[in-house]
Amino acid sequence: MADVLFKALADPTRRTILDELAEKSGQTLFEICSRLSTRHRLGISRQAVSQHLAVLEAAGLVETRREGRCKFHDLNTAPLRRITERWPTPDTPDTPEPEKSTP
Amino acid sequence: MADVLFKALADPTRRTILDELAEKSGQTLFEICSRLSTRHRLGISRQAVSQHLAVLEAAGLVETRREGRCKFHDLNTAPLRRITERWPTPDTPDTPEPEKSTP
DNA sequence: AGGATAGGCAAGTGTTCACTTGCCTATCAA
DNA sequence: TTGATAGGCAAGTGAACACTTGCCTATCCT
């Protein structure tokens, strides 16, 4: 369950892909490839990026929509919230209440 | 930099250790070992747990303090906040303000 | 139809990683 | 001092993983 999420975040290339999708939503596979190459100096094959996107999609971090022969990718940050919810910090509760107990 | 943090979170055993430290702070290595064995049915050697704790400490997720021959481990959730800060959600800003814009 | 664009499937390879085994050091109690 | 407890260091092994290479399918344009 949570395994795929953390495994997906474990790779630095995948995190860079999330950065790119956060900056520009709805990119295609080739668009991500060229931006990884030009902006991040990542010499990586198209298939490698495709596999990374599959992992990110399995983790729920990326959602896709097809239009013809193009496949657009969108970032979904919702699964990230489960991380801070699992180990909540006393100062920052995951269910914030408008109440002050520790001044 | 962030690599050690995400690599540390990638392993399910390490996440279970964080769960245990979140429940009971200041546990020793042997205490963690026995709780992993009895409460989580994890048949794992003491050295394996020690290596996991070293990874978690390198990521800043676990802080240690020595007293004689005992070493106590404490959870530090501060590095986890960098995750949600890296990919902020429009609905949940990382700097929450007491204001309602989307009812 | 035919080429070009956008993407998918599958096997092979090298590296990283989790875990074990074996031995060693340091502190505490008798 | 001797034995027991708490932990550390280092090499070795097997499996998971990132990446490549090669080929195949589907859509769009002329």
From TrEMBL, chains A, B:
Organism annotation: Streptomyces roseolilacinus
Annotated protein name in UniProt: Transcriptional regulator
Domain spans labelled HTH arsR-type: 1-95
Pfam family, one: HTH_20
Molecular function in Gene Ontology: DNA binding; DNA-binding transcription factor activity
CDD domains on file: HTH_ARSR (cd00090)
InterPro entries in alphabetical order: ArsR-like_HTH (IPR011991), HTH_ArsR_DNA-bd_dom (IPR001845), HTH_MetalResp_TranReg (IPR051081), WH-like_DNA-bd_sf (IPR036388), WH_DNA-bd_sf (IPR036390)
Location of region: Disordered: 81-103
Membrane-spanning segments: none
Annotated SMART domains: HTH_ARSR
Keywords assigned by UniProt, alphabetized: DNA-binding, Transcription, Transcription regulation
